[in-house]
């Protein structure tokens, strides 16, 4: 049975840890609002971009744009993995990295070589440790992604796909279903499937005569790279919002565990203290009785 000093020291240690986790929970909660607002502002634009692209592609009919053509023989793929720079976020990073490793193994079994673009220090460290050198690395930007980061990824993917060095490009990231839950999304970025972008209810598509300058094909060729950049950026800020939600959940769980542990230790402290007092009383009573005899 531990003595009172040991128990008191453990209680103080748990309370100190609880202050840290509680503070981190509050910081993450404050960041969630900013990250969620950024996603909310960007979502209408990305949705409109997808709808416009689908509508123009429908009007053009067939297109010879390289970003729309599916390669017959898939030998090289680019996997864009989006995780965080820091830990203490529950399974936010591990779930993505584990799925990425399975993706690479499954593709390797099909004879496809997977190149990795690592967004976040945790992804860089994970793949480097496994002797997988990322073709692109981004560190220090997971909580606040930039347009430049998205443009770099998009340009690498577009150039590789057009030149035939890449046969498909896949995004892998956490999407915040709500403030408390994240779901993993695996999206095919290239080739662009315009038929999948059209809304089932037809809402958002333009009707009537539309004049394209200089031509519908030229507009489509301009929209495709912009669409790829937009989708990459939206995935990055989506992942950033999910990161803060996951960290808040993890820190809340840690704080709750600390409270429970502190209560358990306090009860143990009281029992040990009561036992010590009872022992002292018995010793005093026993001594007094011996003196009377």
UniProtKB/TrEMBL annotation:
The keyword Transport applies. Keywords: ATP synthesis, Cell membrane, CF(1), Hydrogen ion transport, Ion transport, Membrane, Transport. It is found in: Cell membrane; Membrane. It is a peripheral membrane protein. Transmembrane segments: none annotated. CDD domains: F1-ATPase_gamma. Gene3D superfamilies: 3.40.1380.10, ATP synthase, gamma subunit, helix hairpin domain. The keyword Nucleus does not apply. It comes from the Bacteria. One of its GO terms (biological process) is proton motive force-driven plasma membrane ATP synthesis. InterPro entries: ATP_synth_F1_ATPase_gsu, ATP_synth_F1_gsu, ATP_synth_F1_gsu_CS. GO terms for molecular function: ATP binding; proton-transporting ATP synthase activity, rotational mechanism. One of its GO terms (cellular component) is proton-transporting ATP synthase complex. Its main location: membrane. Pfam families: ATP-synt. Produces ATP from ADP in the presence of a proton gradient across the membrane. The gamma chain is believed to be important in regulating ATPase activity and the flow of protons through the CF(0) complex. F-type ATPases have 2 components, CF(1) - the catalytic core - and CF(0) - the membrane proton channel. CF(1) has five subunits: alpha(3), beta(3), gamma(1), delta(1), epsilon(1). CF(0) has three main subunits: a, b and c. Belongs to the ATPase gamma chain family. This is ATP synthase gamma chain. It comes from Candidatus Aveggerthella stercoripullorum.
